[in-house]
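Good morning C.,

I know you're traveling, so I'll keep this short. The sequence:
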Amino acid sequence: MTALDRVLVAAAVAISPAAHRAARREQWTADVQGAAELDLSPTALAFGAFTTALLHRRADRRTTWGATMTAGPLDVRPEPHRVRTVPVLVAVAIASLLASGVWLLLQQNSGSATQRVVSTLAGEALVHVVPGVAVAVAILLLRATAPRRRIGASMVLAATVAVALVPSLPVTASIPFEFFLLLTLAPLVGWFVATSTPWPAWSFAVLPMVLVSAEHTGVLWTLLPAQWNPILFGTPYLALVLAGFLGSRFSTGRSRRFVAPEGALVDKSV
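The tokens, ready to paste straight into the viewer:
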């Protein structure tokens, strides 16, 4: 149980109803400490405790956190919490990309130099940083082996940093389009690696490749009048999210859901 896990559990307990704090502290601490026995990520469970406590503040509301999760058959793995964090993080990435178009549209021809810098930085954050960090954290919380999670998250973060910084570097020669294409597809490759997506399903990468090519050649910008073009900046990245979703539907590493009666999350009686 890492320091981050302890902080998340402590925060989850602190925002829980007062009458439930003692029981939840004992239960959630035991669950996180015993997560490795069921090949689960302790951090994912700790984060799940936090989101469950945050989204279920009323004492009379019921959640499946605390339901018995017995390993049982070899192909059945437990669902760590009802409020699934990974879809929420992916939704954050999508919302940020959609918001980036509106933001860039509103910031056209902004006044002072300071305002233009702020506008540019905020746009970069909405298009690249927020979605990249959200997807990287989502990968770290997947039910996958630790090496796959780390490789996938590292690829997403590396691509995020590179895409955000490369345009500002003092490069005299033009950067090949192939480089940008590989850089854009790196997060998708990281997602496919983490979700154990089979090779045939990687063909969904064609969708973002087509849109990135359309952006590079200028075809994408002809779809809307010039004054509306800023809302198209996030389109290739939205295509990445869609391709990742479609590809991971064929993943061989997806766990089956299992919901059982009341009890401890990690059953140590077996």
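Safe travels,
E.
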